[in-house]
Amino acid sequence: MRLQIVQDFGTGDIETIEISPAALAIEVDPRMAGEVDRILMIYSVPGRFAWITEPFPGRFRLDIDEFSDLDRIGEALFEIAELGGDDPAAVRALIRDLHRRREEAIERKEADSIDDEIALGLYGDDEYF
């Protein structure tokens, strides 16, 4: 199994409340595609993520947002890794990295929102009189 973050979490602009989702590309042996699709379907609802089957057999894309359950995504990826006899250490490292990246994006979004509100004058001086 090959895993790659193809799009990182983003902060968007002042009108966007949530961070923009990250995207994860998964590539497996095409013979495993049906089983991987079934695993992703089972975990997508409790994991709160969307997945797309790419046009090429054995390729998938997961969209992971601010509210996705990264632990459930990790469980799905562990199950997929087990199918192909892959090392689960790469999955653990990826999930840790996604946790870190999402937290950093949330912190950046919160800081940017405060900066934008100050720049727009939403905090007036009349409160201090």
Strand content: 15-25%
Order of helices and strands: EEHEEHH
Distance between the termini: 63 Å
The main sheet comes to: 4 strands, antiparallel
Model regions low in confidence, pLDDT < 50 over at least 5 residues: none
Q: From the alpha-carbon coordinates, what is the Rg to the nearest angstrom?
A: 19 Å
Kindly state the number of beta strands.
4
Mean pLDDT: 87
Tertiary shape:
elongated
As laid out across the biggest beta sheet, the strand order is: 1-2-4-3
Task: Tell me what the structure shows.
The model has no long low-confidence stretch (mean pLDDT 87). It contains three helices and four strands. The protein has one domain (2-128). With 129 residues, the chain is an alpha+beta fold.
Short description:
The chain has 3 helices and 4 strands, in the order E-E-H-E-E-H-H. It is of the alpha+beta class and 129 residues long.
Question: Which features does this protein show?
Answer:
129 residues, alpha+beta, four-stranded antiparallel beta sheet, 4 strands
Secondary structure blueprint with pairings:
Layout: E1 2-7, E2 22-27, H1 33-47, E3 50-53, E4 59-64, H2 70-84, H3 88-119
